[in-house]
Structure formats: C-alpha cells, structure tokens
Amino acid sequence: MPQLTKLLLEHKELTLRARYSVRIDRTIVIEPLRQLTEDTFRNVLNKKSVHKIAIMNADNASIEKYEGPFRFCRMNGILIFKPMA
Question: Which of 22, 34, 33, 13 is nearest to 80 (CA)?
Fold first, then answer.
C-alpha cells in the first residue's frame, strides 16, 4: 500500500504520514500511521463536500490529483472520501 506525506483538500494542506488506496469506484481510503487529533477531524468535517483532493506520494514525491465532489466520513480513525453521484 503506498504512503502519503501531504494531503491537500481544496486549499487546505494537511501534513501527515499515512497509507492510502484508491478503489475502482474512486473511493479514497486514508489510514494514518498515527492517530489524528479531533481538531484535525473537525477541520476536515467542517465542509459538507470536497471538490479537489491531491495526495503527495512519499515514494516518488509525485502529486496525484482527483476531481470530486467527494463526501467525507470517518470510521475507526480511517478517513474515507467517497465520490458523490
């Protein structure tokens, strides 16, 4: 599973170390290596949807960009961005 160093949600930049995967249906699953604080979750959750997500890959410093909109949910400390239909 690839690792990320930065997560860009529209104009916000979150620096975190995590593993991530992008499913066939474009669902993005991010599993932080350290537990995130509630403030970080609130900053992400304050928007109903996210229109652009960019992930900086730790392996080769490339940036992967995904166009939304995505809705955000959290399950057991894992961040899940699901595409809105």
Answer: 22
In the three-class reduction of DSSP (H, G, I as helix; E, B as strand; rest coil), residue 37 is classed as coil
Position 45 scores a pLDDT of: 66
Nearest alpha-carbon partner for 4 in 26, 29, 25, 23 = 29
User: Model confidence at 22, in pLDDT bands (50, 70, 90)?
Assistant: very high
Beta bridge partners of 80: 29, 73
pTM listed for this prediction: 0.84
For residues 59 and 41, what is the distance between their CA atoms, to the nearest angstrom?
Answer: 25
For residue 1, what is the DSSP state? -
Question: Which pLDDT does position 42 carry in this prediction?
Answer: 74
CA distances from residue 76 to 9, 16, 45, 69, 79 in whole angstroms, order as listed = 21, 17, 15, 23, 9
